[in-house]
Amino acid sequence: MDAPTITILNTYATTLFGRRSLVVPAILAAVAFTATVAPGCSTARSSPDWDRRAVDASMLQDDGEIDRAEESYRRLLETAVDAEDRRWVRLKLAQLAAARGHRNRALERYRRLWSEGPRDATGARALWEAAQLVEKPARRDEMEKRLVRTFPETSWSERAAESLVNRRCRRGTCDLEALGVLVESMEEAFLELPVGDNLVFRAAVAAQTHGGSPELARRWFDRIAEKRPDSSMADDAERQLAEMALGRQDWDTALDYLTRLSDRHQRSRNFGILSSPHASWAQFKTGWIRMVYLDDYRGAIESFDVFLKRHPKHPRADDAAWHRTQALRLAGRRDAYRRALKGLLDDYPQSRYISKARTELKGIETP
User: Whole-prediction pTM value?
Assistant: First the structure.
């Protein structure tokens, strides 16, 4: 599978499920496997006509044509030759029962999917959708914990983790004790899996946003950043820690985390082709702090130089170029300051700093 195809699929999956979802690598791995299976292999698959009818049935379901959709799904179930396809149809039939208001029938159909057969994404989704039908919060809590424990490597476990946290912290209120119990009881068991990072990260955000406990939030963010520096959530945790340090005006701690984030430029996310989305922010912020708060003009110039080298097409490239001119001016490097102003005028003709740059350049060159 070529690089453009990988990029397109990765972007599509991220749009649907979020950047942190396990679905991204799963989709790509599945597509790569499918593309390499030789024609005529023994693996049973339903026919292209079956696939077309499955799409038609899904469209009927989406349009609210419940009776017609159910009839179509039952015909599909009779003709499916692949176990995965049969599980998919049974999931759809459970959804139709729920749509009809037949709660008990839907729950029983969902139960058969998540309690029997392979621990796959279909089973995880069945357990998630079943939990949403349960009225008692304690029972829903139990089912979502089961989902995390039974299907930890699916995107549905991440949804369950989010729901478990939100049930304890929402709308400006937070039961910090219950949140702590949840984190300690669930996170250690899944420390090596993304769902563990996801749960701890969401709990930290909730403690900070709704619980008014930045110290607890900092401890949980730090747990991810320190214990799991190569995890998919580590850069998110580092950014949160950096922003908290900035809020306290703890410049040394902030710069430590910003440096870590900056070094994640071109760090592999899934296939070695993506950077951390926070790397450019961290590099820019480093230059700004050194110039504005620390009077470290040399360090600021170096930071903005690195930013412009690594991110020449970034939306804030002209901001970095402008701030670099100001750091040069404050450092007393008159010739370099003049060259930087001219470079800004040449490289960013549409920049909002054009007028200022012309005025300052004229002031330098006027005897």
Answer: 0.72
